[in-house]
Amino acid sequence: MKDRKNxxxxxxxxxxxxxxxxxxxxxxxxxxxxxxxxxxxxxxGGIIVWSLIGWGLDNxxxxxxxxxxxxLLGAAGGFYLSHMHGLTSHRSTxxxxxAAGAPSKDAEQ
Length: 109
Hints:
Number of helices: 4
Strand content: under 5%
Largest sheet: none
Structural class: mainly alpha
Shape: flat
Distance between the termini: 73 Å
């Protein structure tokens, strides 16, 4: 009976963090695989949607080039969205050295 009274007075707290961008955790870690899938889906989804819009406009107006412009616009929009959601941010390694950006320290000796 005492446990039930304590439970009623202290309801459980919501332990789930607030949702941000897909694939990105609250502490700034990018989520690895999930972030890659989110970037891929933004780009491919943009290409598909804007290509279909371009295809429809091509059929409506009797042209043949708007579908290509729509695909390029969709790809650019996908990159833009993934960048704005923080999925394509630059990360440095734990030691602070950027291995891809400079030659190794062994080559300097």
